[in-house]
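thought: user wants a sequence for this fold. calling inverse folding tool.
action: design(structure=
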């Protein structure tokens, strides 16, 4: 049940159902438009046929009806009206005599309506002495009820048949879409979802019968494979570049650090442990907080903090601090400001070196050089003294022999 529901949920949220809905909507709209067009044409044809039939009735029965009026033969008129009422759609027929008398002959048949679908009146003539004399008027009323009924039945048949056809075709389109496209897109998405550039999987391949010629899916797979090889090569180049830069950085420095926008340490590499500190002791603190020479060299620190507030890079800033064991440490730090994609300052990243031993060696070297210079000066002084004593003239004159 869980697997079935997962498959159903994936299908419900996939491309296939949306494609099915759009195919159904397009097919329904197309079917309705075509059906309405066909029904309208049938309506025009059937109503035109009724109007033409009424004209034919007037032409066919006009002479005999005129004879019946001339002879005032009501029975003959009734028989002819009954015959006319047998025609489809004809609902009412009336023959009215045209006369000046107050009680003209009126013979009718059928059911008269207040608002018939169509009504026509035709004059009835009888030739006499070479002229046509109007004897009366033939009134015909017809209904379109049969036309409407036939159109409704036809619409039901068309819509039922087309609806079943549309549904079957849409399901077939959904199946073809899943078989040819969506299942491969799902496989491609799963491959990308679990792709790890550190451990590249085997090349992507679609589980389908190879087509005779490459199609769009083959182009997508080929493009992805090209992109994957490029990405893997770029990642390998990046790792090589990072290793080279790390070698250079580790050679030129002892540990790495990063600070936030308030200049507090947010990262210190673990190499700092070799110099008597733990990175957790420095996180959240500023460089100024742990310095031991702030009071002795305030001008130096003011200038350094001004550089930080201006978000400028700095190099070889030397300061002193106390290790946890109380010994003095001399540090040289260099940093570069960091900005986000919108140009906002986010902090500094940089390196630091412990130059305590270097400074001690420099001081010892300076002391030794100073002692050597002092010794040389003392030696030179003594040499001058001895030379002066040796060549000084005697106060007694020697007696000649």
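)
observation: tool returned 401 residues.
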């Amino acid at each position: 049940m869980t697997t079935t529901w997962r498959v159903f949920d994936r299908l419900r949220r996939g491309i296939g159902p949306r494609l099915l809905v759009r195919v159904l909507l397009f097919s329904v709209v197309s079917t309705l438009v075509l059906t309405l067009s066909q029904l309208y044409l049938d309506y025009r044809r059937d109503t035109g046929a009724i109007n033409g039939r009424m004209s034919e009735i007037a032409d066919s029965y006009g002479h005999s009806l005129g004879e019946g009026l001339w002879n005032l033969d009501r029975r003959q008129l009734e028989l002819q009206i009954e015959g006319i009422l047998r025609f489809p759609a004809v609902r009412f027929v009336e023959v009215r005599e045209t006369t000046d008398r107050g009680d003209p002959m009126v013979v009718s048949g059928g059911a008269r309506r207040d608002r018939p679908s169509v009504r026509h009146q035709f004059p009835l003539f009888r030739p006499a002495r070479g002229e046509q004399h109007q004897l009366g008027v033939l009134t015909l009323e017809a209904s379109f009820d049969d036309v409407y009924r036939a159109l409704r039945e036809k619409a039901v048949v068309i819509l039922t048949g087309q609806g079943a056809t549309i549904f079957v075709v849409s399901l077939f389109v959904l199946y073809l879409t899943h078989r040819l496209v969506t299942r491969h897109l799902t496989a491609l998405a799963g491959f990308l979802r679990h792709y790890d550039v550190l451990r590249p999987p085997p090349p992507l391949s679609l589980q389908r019968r190879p087509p005779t010629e490459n199609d769009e899916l083959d182009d997508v797979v080929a493009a992805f494979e090209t992109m994957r090889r490029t990405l893997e090569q770029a990642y390998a180049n990046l790792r090589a570049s990072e290793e080279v830069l790390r070698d250079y950085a580790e050679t030129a420095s002892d540990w790495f650090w990063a600070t936030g926008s308030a200049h507090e340490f947010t990262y210190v590499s673990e190499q700092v442990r070799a110099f008597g500190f733990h990175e957790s002791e420095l996180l959240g603190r500023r460089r100024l907080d742990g310095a031991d020479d702030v009071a002795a060299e305030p001008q130096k620190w003011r200038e350094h903090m001004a550089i930080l507030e201006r978000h400028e890079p700095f190099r070889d800033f030397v300061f002193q601090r106390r290790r946890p064991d109380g010994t003095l440490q001399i540090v040289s730090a260099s940093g570069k400001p960091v900005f986000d994609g919108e140009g906002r300052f986010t902090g500094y990243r940089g390196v630091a070196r412990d130059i305590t031993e270097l400074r001690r060696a420099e001081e010892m070297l300076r002391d030794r050089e100073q002692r050597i210079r002092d010794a040389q000066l003392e030696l030179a002084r003594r040499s001058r003294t001895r030379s002066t004593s040796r060549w000084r003239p005697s106060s007694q004159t020697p007696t000649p022999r």
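thought: summarizing for user.
answer: Here is the designed sequence. The domain at 254-360 is CATH 3.30.450.20 (Beta-Lactamase).
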